[in-house]
Amino acid sequence: MATDGGLLRTPVDRRNIQLSPGERAEIVLSLAPGEDTMLRSSKPDLGAVASPFAFGGEDSFDLLKLQAAPVLEASADISPRLATFAHDERAASVTRSFTVEGREINGRKMAMDRIDETVTLGVTEIWEVRNGNPFPHNVHVHDVQFQILSIDGAEPPDHLSGRKDTVYLSPRKTYRLIMSFEDYAYPDVASMYHCHLLLHEDEGMMGQFTVTDPAAEAGAPEPAPDQETGHTGHQHRAAIVTWRPESGRGAS
Ligand SMILES: [Cu+2]
What we know:
Order of helices and strands: EEEEEEEEEEEEEHEHH
Largest sheet: 5 strands, mixed
CATH class of the domain at 89-219 and 229-239: Mainly Beta
Strand order of the largest sheet: 6-5-8-12-10
Strand content: 25-35%
Bound molecules: copper (II) ion
Number of strands: 14
Distance between the termini: 22 Å
Oligomer: single chain
Helix content: under 10%
């Protein structure tokens, strides 16, 4: 029914959904009165991974047993039309390319005092993200929900056609993502993009971006010098990087 960022356009009928760390799905299943059903984690399709067993590629196990009550009330029908949304690829005016490899994004590990990308408020961008390794990564972008335009040139499968903030990156494949930066323009507050495999992000596979609002900056007065140091805010800009909660977006 729904992906990371909300309802799909229309329900998708599947027996399996693959989720890499950080991805979410909302599902509806039908149960008969008294029926037991096991939600199972089955072998993932990791793509052309060199040694799948090293990444859980051979693993399957029981996850959650659901036991229906002896008497059930019928639930409402599911609407065939759930949500409308669309990014217009022709509206995209900026394309950025990212290669994730080892523990680096575009050859660099996370640095708290470095802003890697600066985007402009109100702009629609395409991010082309490629997994340069023969092992799994994924990518998670804070601040926005993106849509997948293509995976190695092919349309995404229907269950990946919704609004997302995290997507699995199959080895050696390129994912074209489209997103609009419509709010949270704070020049001194960064958002992150990173691999959501915990080991990888912990070891530095992360970058930072800020959203700038040219209209606000043009109208803003010069910051007053600090009383004690005489420094202005601008001189500190690159060093002021604050983690902020993403209320209501469910991302981390
Ligand atoms: Cu990774």
